[in-house]
Amino acid sequence: DSVFAAIAQAPEDPILGVTVAYNKDPSPIKLNLGVGAYRTEEGKPLVLNVVRKAEQFLVNDHAAIEENRVATAQCLSGTGSLRVGAEFLAKHYHQHTIYIPLPSWGNHLKVFTMAGLSVKTYRYYDPTTRGLNFQGLLEDLGAAPAGAMVLLHACAHNPTGVDPTLEQWEQIRQLIRSKGLLPFFDSAYQGFASGSLDADAQPVRMFVADGGECLVAQSYAKNMGLYGERVGALSIVCKAADVASRVESQLKLVIRPMYSNPPIHGASIAATILKNSDMYDEWKIELKAMADRIISMRKQLFDALSARGTPGDWSHIIKQIGMFTFTGLNSDQVAFMTKEYHIYMTSDGRISMAGLSSKTVPHLADAIHAAVT
Ligand code: PMP
Domain named Aminotransferase class I/classII large: which ranges (predicted)? Predict the structure, then answer.
């Protein structure tokens, strides 16, 4: 016998029971005076205007979200968001080729290959100008097969620090849409490029605004300094709500056998900041301070090299954007700087401007100067 077998049926709550009885009554003249909740002249619940305003202020949702066209899953920071997106695409998308910029963050190739996609590259960086190879980019994406996926760094391209201008983004958008390519944004540095969350979100918003599909992998590791918490999200923007709801159900199936559920602590911190207008404002200020310090490091390093008369054009140090400078130093020069100056960086000559300070700029400038002379 059940240990609960002797438990008796509880009576209906005296107040809630009134509504139960009311709901059951088919009469057209029925009137519920049981529950103490405010109703309008039309008998409808009232959402106060001020509440609506506050909600708008806090959430400020994009139309695509209001229209329930975005399927979002909390994922394990940027990497996990990319991987879940890639697994989803490998399973449910008709095309299996994804184009990534050349060069790109080293993990992109591995994440997409492991998920079963085939990775190709599109021209991106031009070593001679240390800027964007825009013509090459347009040619390569223009030659991609219809439906192919395109990985785009939303801002602060890693490792080059080279981003398209908004005019160039618009051309990229038109090309991608006209060819029916599927854009997949990697947004790992929102706010870090310009210091403004909105400005850095512009490219993604341009694509969402045209009503077409896109994927967005977001990391909060850098912009909230929550590196170890692994806070991120994958959003799949769809054209209709019913599609988004089916996409979301499939995302759950992708995630379930990988790690079942994401951890809650860091995500609760991020959600609290995003939902509370005071904290949100405070975050924007602190984020801008981080971005501004990096920008000032660019200026200081550039000035220090100019002061030393270091041969070559170093203007790319101030032109490039975000956390990294792609110095143009070759692997021998990098090895020299490590051996003689104890300065460590990746062998492709990428330096993290975030690791630099006013105190250490002169040492780095001395090392670069010695490496190139
Ligand atoms: N994308 C890019 C371009 C990155 O540089 C990084 C971090 N180095 C990531 C994604 C993922 O970062 P995380 O998983 O730590 O959020």
Answer: 59-368
Token pair, residue 109, equals 């190739």
Q: Measure 79 CA to ligand 1 centroid, in angstroms.
A: 6
Say whether pLDDT at 25 is over 90.
yes
Any alpha helices (H) in 61-161, and if so which ranges? 63-66, 77-92, 107-114, 134-142
What's the CA gap between 274 and 145, in Å, rounded?
Answer: 39
End-to-end CA distance of the chain: 89
Distance of CA 330 to the CA centre of its chain: 31
How far apart CA 240 and CA 117 sit, in angstroms, is 26
How far apart CA 108 and CA 83 sit, in angstroms, is 9
Give the distance, in angstroms, between the CA of residue 304 and the centroid of all CA atoms in the same chain: 34
> Ligand 1 in contact with 324 (CB < 6 A)?
no
Which ligand 1 atom lies nearest to the CA of residue 227? 15
The 10s digit of each residue's pLDDT in 182-210 is 999 999 999 999 999 999 999 999 999 99
pTM equals 0.85
The number of the ligand 1 atom at minimal distance from the alpha carbon of 157 is 3
195 close to 295: Cβ distance less than 8 angstroms: yes
Mutate which of 83, 104, 105 for ligand 1? The one with the most ligand atoms within 8 Å of its CB, which is 105
Largest CA distance in the chain: 94
pLDDT tens for each residue of 32-45: 888 888 888 888 88
Q: Which two tokens stand for residue 223?
A: 């912009």
pLDDT at 225: 93
| Distance, CA of 63 to CA of 306 (rounded, Å) | 48
Report the amino acid identity of residue 25.
Answer: D
